[in-house]
Amino acid sequence: MPTVPPDLLDGVRDVMPLHLGIVPFGLVAGVAAVEQGLSILHAIGFSTIVFAGASQLAMIELLGADAPLAIVVGTAVVVNLRMLMYSASIAPYFRDFAAQSKTVASYLLTDQAYALSLARYGEDGQTDRFAYYIGVAASLWVVWQLSTIAGAFLGAGLPPEWGFEFAAPLVFLALLVPALKDRASATSGLVGGLVAVAVVAAGIPFHLDIIVAAVVGVGAGLAVESLGGDA
Amino acid sequence: MPTSYDATTVWGVIVVAGVLTFAIRGSFVYLFGRIDEIPPQVQSALEYVPAAVFAALVFPAILVPEGAVSLSLGNERLVAGVLAAIAAWYTERVFVTIVVGMGTLWVLRFVV
After folding, report:
1. Membrane-spanning regions, if any (chain B) (predicted)?
2. Is pLDDT of A230 > 80?
3. Which of A48, A80, A99, B101 lies in disulfide reach of A170, CB 3.0 to 4.6 Å?
4. Which residue positions in chain B have pLDDT lower than 70?
């Protein structure tokens, strides 16, 4: 019988505390899908095919608002752009992986898998990199799928007057706060948020608010960085 | 408000978004050797994406609940959002943020 590599078990153990944040997020993604008129199979499709919580939730909200499909997909790309950074930053450690391992590792790349694996690779040259990564990333995958499915089944039975649709912006709020780590990113967030409010309040159609706000907000962050020095 | 898109269209969106997201994740993992790293200016810009995007997803949801900006205490989403933001700041926990936000909403809606 093949034995489980110890580094894989380390990965599973290290990611366990993060599941506390993943479970409610996954529940909300499942509930939101059903509330916006999608099927339980759609909810599962989002979680298995896209497997990126924030973009799933944004797409589900936009589909519920009947936004144009190009905006729905464009928003998902914008929300996931940060993963370009992770991909570039972790690529040197994946260089020697077989092609299939690279495919699996790319599919499973998330904020948490990136952060934990990079920390481990940096402190220890002996780690079986793929095993550790799979321990973290695949257990996140399993927990994410189970919590989305649970949310989708739960969502069908929730009374509408309880306003569970408000849980989606609350998840984004929980993601926003740690992203405001310095003056430039705080400016980026404030400007992005206010631009989005202005676009929505002005009644500009097609739900362009997220994409416009992202462009202006990133520009504001870069401006503060170039002016302020201590970004 | 449920979507008007039919089931097949939604599947199309899921697949296209899934393929593009995979391409973003795999980009540098596959390109390595041809492109060594992200140019520093692009790297800087990408660092501000999460703050700008997440704020754009939060602000209208709490400040523009019914299509018009509402900054009054009568806007239950604004009150719940501010308390949830304070909870997020101190705990950095998704679960606590949801509990405080939904709890406040329910108190305002069913108790006050």
Report:
1. 12-33, 45-63, 83-108
2. no
3. B101
4. 1, 33-34
Number of domains in chain A: 2
Residue A209 lies in a domain: yes
Partner residue facing B45 (CB), from A106, A179, A218: A218
DSSP string computed for B54-97 = HHHHHHHHHH-TTSS---STT-HHHHHHHHHHHHHHHH--HHHH
B98 touches chain A (CB under 8 A): yes
Is A168 inside a domain boundary?
A: no
Q: Which of B29, B69, B97 sits opposite A94 (nearest CB)?
A: B29
Question: Does residue A183 sit in the same domain as residue A159?
Answer: no
* Chain A contact for B91 (CB, 8 A cutoff): no
Minimal CA–CA distance to A82: which of A103, A117, A119, A110? A110
pLDDT in tens, A85-130: 999 999 999 999 999 999 999 999 999 999 999 999 988 778 899 9
Instruction: Say if A170 falls within a structural domain.
Output: no
Partners of residue B29 in chain A, C-beta under 8 Å: 87, 90-91, 94, 102, 105-106, 109
A96 and A152 together in one domain? yes
ipTM: 0.92
Decide which of A191 and A231 is more confident.
Answer: A191
Q: What is the pTM of this model?
A: 0.91
Nearest to A49 among B14, B50, B94 (CB): B14
Q: What is the pLDDT of residue A231?
A: 43
Whether A171 maps to a domain, the answer reads no
B69:A201 CB<8 A: yes
Give percent of chain B above pLDDT 70.
96
Q: Chain B partners of A61 at a C-beta cutoff of 8 Å?
A: 57
B101 contact A CB<8A: yes
